[in-house]
Write a structure and sequence with these properties.
Mean pLDDT of chain B: 94
Largest sheet of chain B: 6 strands, parallel
Helix content of chain B: 40-55%
Strand content of chain A: 15-25%
Shape of chain A: globular
Order of helices and strands of chain A: HEHEHEHHEEEHEHEH
Number of helices of chain A: 8
Low-confidence stretches of chain B: none
Oligomer: heterodimer
Strand order of the largest sheet of chain B: 2-1-3-4-6-5
Structural class of chain B: alpha/beta
Largest interface: A-B, 40 and 32 residues
Radius of gyration of chain B: 15 Å
Low-confidence stretches of chain A: none
Mean pLDDT of chain A: 96
Radius of gyration of chain A: 15 Å
Order of helices and strands of chain B: HEHEHEHHEHEHEHH
Number of helices of chain B: 9
Number of strands of chain B: 6
Number of strands of chain A: 8
Largest sheet of chain A: 6 strands, parallel
């Protein structure tokens, strides 16, 4: 099936009326996507550590069981950390959602095909790992349901969203890691985070 | 076969984690850490998180700290080979990191395939800017780990404590299987 969704439309829809949602983005295109939706103190966009986004989301979700946590990442980044889906499946955090923006390409390195281009089904893998209701999303109706999933449904949730492989303008978040960490902690835990 | 000591060093290490107020403990199972893992699992103030690879443990540490939790990673020295690139992000973001690493490929190793990584463990960690402390005897386990935990969390440093194979006292594959 040919993808029709635009990645920025999907991410904008997920982050509309985001409230106190805590957001981790995998390095590359999804970090630019959440920044295009509006840079935010409660965003933690990765510039490295490929394969770690889901585990960072898990650490936040376990530390803050009363908050909703969203990991937005690409298919390439998710493939590099596939074991983390099994680890989340053991811990079963109800407040964590993982959304893979799947363009079937490594977007930052020359648009080479990823494993999902050959049919590797990440939603099925998440199902096997014990996620609540993993789904593959290919149309606008599905995207509308994702907002509800991320903001309210008991997880761990997982969605693989098929999007067009398109070259779009970069929208870069701040680059300094220590800054991104400190502003997230302060926004989440207040000024006392600086003294922890 | 028990190591020749009367000091219950895994209990001392658990006490350090508890006093540090560690709330999340990531681990990849290791025979040398068997008892400490069980102590952490039984401690209701800690969430023990089994990982498929040590690299996941560093991800958990970063997320825990973003959420305001202290954490620790338990692993074997071979796992140090799996975390090198992720240590770059720990350093760039200045995340505190406390790793308790049981050594293989070091004193009295019986599996030659463990030796290359075991011998490179300290250099690899130091090349990535991790402070390395070693525990050689059961008596020094508590004090060395306590100092390492304070260095990590009072100074926002990445610290690894390497626990000598002498303490673990496994002498053969059969010995390992019997534990």
């Amino acid at each position: 099936m040919k993808a029709t969704l635009h990645r920025r439309d999907v991410v904008n829809a997920l982050l509309a009326d985001r409230g106190d949602l805590l957001v981790v983005a995998g390095l590359g295109s999804t970090a630019w996507d959440i920044s295009a939706a509006g840079d935010h103190d409660l965003n933690f966009p990765l510039w490295g550590a490929m394969g770690s986004s889901v585990m960072i989301g898990l650490g936040i979700a376990l530390a803050k069981p009363g908050s909703r946590v969203l990991v937005i990442t690409g298919d390439g980044e998710m493939l590099m950390g596939m074991g983390s889906l099994a680890t989340v499946g053991v811990q079963k955090p109800a407040n964590l959602s993982v959304v893979v923006i799947d363009n079937e390409r490594y977007g930052e390195t020359g648009m080479q095909a990823t494993h999902t281009a050959s049919g590797v089904d990440l939603a099925q893998i998440a199902k096997g790992c014990g996620f609540a209701h993993p789904r593959q999303v290919t149309d606008r109706d599905g995207v509308a349901g994702l907002h509800k999933m991320v903001h309210g449904e008991a997880g761990p949730n997982f969605a693989q969203v098929k999007v067009l492989a398109e070259k779009i303008p970069l929208v870069l978040p701040p680059r300094e890691g220590a800054l991104l960490k400190a502003r997230f902690r302060r926004a989440l835990n207040g000024p006392s985070a600086d003294a922890q | 076969m028990k190591a020749n000591t009367t000091v219950d060093w895994p209990l001392d290490l658990h006490e350090v984690l508890a006093q540090t107020e560690v709330r999340q403990v990531a681990y990849v199972p290791d025979a040398g850490h068997k008892r400490l893992i069980e102590l952490c699992q039984a401690d209701k103030s800690m969430r023990a998180v089994v990982c498929t690879t040590e690299e996941e443990g560093l991800g958990l540490v970063m997320g825990a700290w973003l959420g305001g939790d202290k954490s620790a990673v338990l692993m074997q020295s071979s796992g140090v080979g799996n975390i090198i690139n992720t240590l770059g992000t720990i350093k760039e973001c200045r995340f505190p990191l406390l790793m308790l690493v049981t050594m293989r490929g070091d004193e009295g190793e019986f599996n030659p395939w463990q030796v290359p990584m075991g011998q490179a463990t300290q250099s690899v960690l130091e090349a990535m800017g991790v402070v390395v402390k070693r525990i050689h005897t059961a008596e020094e386990a508590g004090p060395v780990a306590s100092a390492a935990a304070r260095l990590a969390y009072n100074s926002y440093a990445a610290v690894a404590v390497l626990i000598s194979q002498r303490l673990i006292g496994i002498k053969s594959f059969q010995d390992q299987a019997d534990r």
